């Protein structure tokens, strides 16, 4: 395919050198003229780029697009059962990302049918990829899904209720970076990080929220931390789970679970270490 390369400024020339050996960073421009609206261009161009350049983070094989107009899913893996939804934006992603209908999303998470989300941020002027992360479906729990206000009675779809993914309430383990401001992770790094996040799937969905919320607290600590450091989050966790009156014992039990999953290790009694950054 002939890619019509745009003129880019020095910053991007530098960036392009970093990327070029590992990943194609230019979005295809050759067929943009066929489409009119910005959102249409964004969708078509980024889908084409993802199809040609991204790989399945679970097994490293090719990802394949679903037929146009397929709901929820944009890509599936050619070799394993993983499925993905592509979210593209000309702006950096904020802490909350718009999701679909709330109850449908929650149900799809509960039954394990929710796709992982590919978050692709690109520079619209230069048609360059800036950041790509994958939000692992295992780490999207009920806690990080916020229902929005139902649409008003005057709206065409009145009563319809959307949701937001609260990215800052997802443990770092679940957000796997492929490109981060010019740094490209190797395929092996991506697959390793994916497998670490995947361990959350071993925990039933109803219990995954507590574990993810605790790990999000632990993310704020140094790599090596103590039980008393974790107890600092007792009030926050008690607020999230008002029916749980024994937060400290629950914290200790969840630390054991994180250890059993290989996400943290116990160094000495009351001293722990995160195994993944
Ligand atoms: Zn795969």
Description:
The protein is of the alpha+beta class and 277 residues long. It has 2 domains: 192 residues, 3-Layer(aba) Sandwich (PvuII Endonuclease, Chain A); 75 residues, Arc Repressor Mutant, subunit A. It contains 8 helices and 13 strands. β9 and β10 form a beta hairpin. α5 packs across α8. The longest helix has 16 residues. About 4% of the residues have low confidence. Zinc ion (ZN) binds next to loops.
Entry summary:
By secondary structure, the protein is an alpha+beta fold.
Layout of helices and strands:
Layout (H helix, E strand, L loop, with lengths): L9 H11 L17 H16 L9 E3 L9 E3 L5 E7 L6 E6 H9 L5 E8 L4 E8 L9 E3 L14 E5 L8 E6 L2 E2 L2 H12 L6 H14 L5 E3 H5 L2 H7 L6 H14 L3 E5 L2 E4 L3
Parallel strand pairs: 3-5
Antiparallel strand pairs: 1-2, 2-3, 4-8, 5-6, 6-9, 7-8, 9-10, 11-13, 12-13
Bound molecules: zinc ion.
The site of zinc ion (ZN) has 8 residues, from loops.
């Amino acid at each position: 395919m002939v890619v019509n390369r745009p003129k880019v400024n020095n910053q991007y020339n530098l960036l392009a050198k970093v990327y070029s050996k590992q990943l194609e960073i230019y979005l295809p421009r050759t067929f943009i003229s066929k489409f009119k609206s910005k959102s249409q261009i964004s969708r078509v161009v980024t889908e084409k780029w993802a199809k040609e350049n991204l790989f399945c983070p679970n097994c490293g094989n090719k990802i394949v697009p679903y037929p146009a107009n397929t709901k929820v899913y944009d890509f599936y893996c050619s070799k394993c059962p993983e499925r993905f939804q592509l979210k593209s934006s000309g702006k950096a992603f904020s802490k909350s990302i718009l999701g679909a209908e709330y109850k449908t999303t929650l149900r799809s998470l509960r039954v394990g049918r929710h796709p992982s989300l590919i978050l692709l941020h690109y520079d619209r002027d230069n048609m360059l990829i800036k950041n790509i992360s994958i939000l692992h479906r295992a780490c999207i729990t009920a806690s990080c899904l916020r229902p929005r206000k139902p649409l008003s009675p005057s709206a065409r779809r009145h009563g319809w209720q959307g949701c937001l993914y609260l990215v800052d309430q997802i443990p770092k383990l679940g957000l796997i970076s492929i490109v981060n401001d010019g740094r490209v992770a190797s395929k092996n790094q991506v697959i390793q990080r994916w497998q670490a996040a995947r361990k959350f799937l071993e925990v039933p969905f109803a219990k995954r929220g507590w574990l993810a919320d605790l790990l999000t607290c632990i993310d704020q600590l140094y790599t090596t931390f103590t039980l008393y450091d974790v107890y600092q989050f007792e009030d926050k966790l008690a607020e999230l789970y008002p029916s749980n009156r024994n937060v400290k014992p629950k914290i200790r039990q969840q630390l054991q679970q994180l250890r059993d999953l290989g996400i943290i290790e116990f160094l000495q009694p009351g001293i722990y270490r995160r195994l993944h950054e």
